[in-house]
Amino acid sequence: MHLFRLLALILCLAAPAAAQDGTITTGTGTTSEQAQADAAIATKIRDILHELDGYEDVTVVVKSGIVTLRGTTLDVSQSESLNGLVGRVEGVVAIENEVGISTDVRRRLTPMVERVQLRFWQAVAFMPLVGVALIAFAIVLWIGFFIARRRQPWDRLAPNAFIADIIRAVIRIAAIVAAVVVALDILGATALLSTILGAAGIIGLAIGFAVRDTVENFIASVLLSVRQPFAPNDAICIDGEEGKVIRLTSRATIMLSFDGNHIRIPNSTVFKSKIINYTRNPERRFAFALGVAYGTDLAKARELAEETLKAMPFVLDTPAVSIWTTELGGSDIGMNLTAWIDQRETGLLAARSEAIRQVLLAFDEAGIQMPEPTYRLLMSDTEAEADAAPPQATAASPGTSEVQNVEATLEHDLENIVDAERDTEREDLLRSDAIKE
Fold this sequence. Notes:
Elements: H1 2-51, E1 59-63, E2 66-73, H2 76-87, E3 94-101, H3 105-149, H4 154-157, H5 161-187, H6 191-210, H7 212-226, E4 235-238, E5 241-248, E6 252-256, E7 262-266, H8 267-272, E8 275-277, E9 283-293, H9 298-310, E10 322-328, E11 332-342, H10 348-366, H11 381-386, H12 413-423
Parallel strand pairs: 2-3
Antiparallel strand pairs: 1-2, 4-5, 4-8, 5-6, 6-7, 9-11, 10-11
Helix pairs in contact: 3-5, 9-10
């Protein structure tokens, strides 16, 4: 009986010990497998870093899937990229990145020296190809400039020398661009062309805004030279300035005022302004006004003035002379008289002056009065008594003057000055055979 109890006690004490021995055996097996997995992860990470530059000083420690990185790199971006590299390795649970930036001068300068040496030997290897590219660049450039230097067909195709020069400039620019494209294509660097063109576009846009007025004036010069609204020696009015045209340059229109002064108007102003050309139409009308006294037979006065103007040798039959009453003034009745001349043969001012003289002589002979303005003065009684003798009006008896026609010839003095100015060797975009608006 006692023997059975002793055996049962021994079995009870042995069971926990056996269970404890089994657990220890199982835990030892699990630790061994995790160590092998950690070693495999560390080996894989080291192999990856070994293939990459800049991670020579980085150490890897893996424990239970947690990767600890220590050491130094040359760049902050290299240190930050370690997390992405290591995180893609299978089995990594977490990453502790303790990698810093190296301050070793020798280590930091060595890659730069190697890069400089590499670039130098690459440049030496590229020298023959660069020579071929330069030769191709020079050939394309020479061909473009040779075509641009030729006078024909550009002088024949362009409406004037200014446009021909613009065409030549465009050809030169196109030749430069083509030469650059060919050279870069030989060097295999055509991708650089888009960068160059983009930078050139931005710079060109900035320059365009900075010199907007100059560009506007240049475009106006081109348009005026193509569609010429005036010709040399034309009498014109631009923006209130009157005179005769001397020349049209690439920047301004040069005029000679009727006072003999030079007027220089920017072409942008000319293009945007109202232009009055007095010369383009040969027929031109002159007009003047006069007044006749109340009580005058207006029909007779009108008929006499019309006959007088029609009888003048420089007055054209068509368009006809026109006369009409304009207003009732304080002491006279206003009339307007107009007639037409051929300004290629007759001067406007001379014709108008002679017409006024002839009409005044005709009215004087017919007894048609053209009184001076009359004013009514109201005086007090004292002042009226002081003036004992009233003033006597003296009327000038109309004298008999012989009617003579004076030639209203065209004055050529200003035209001679303009011709002398044009004979000098200066830039001029006006051509007699150009299209006129």
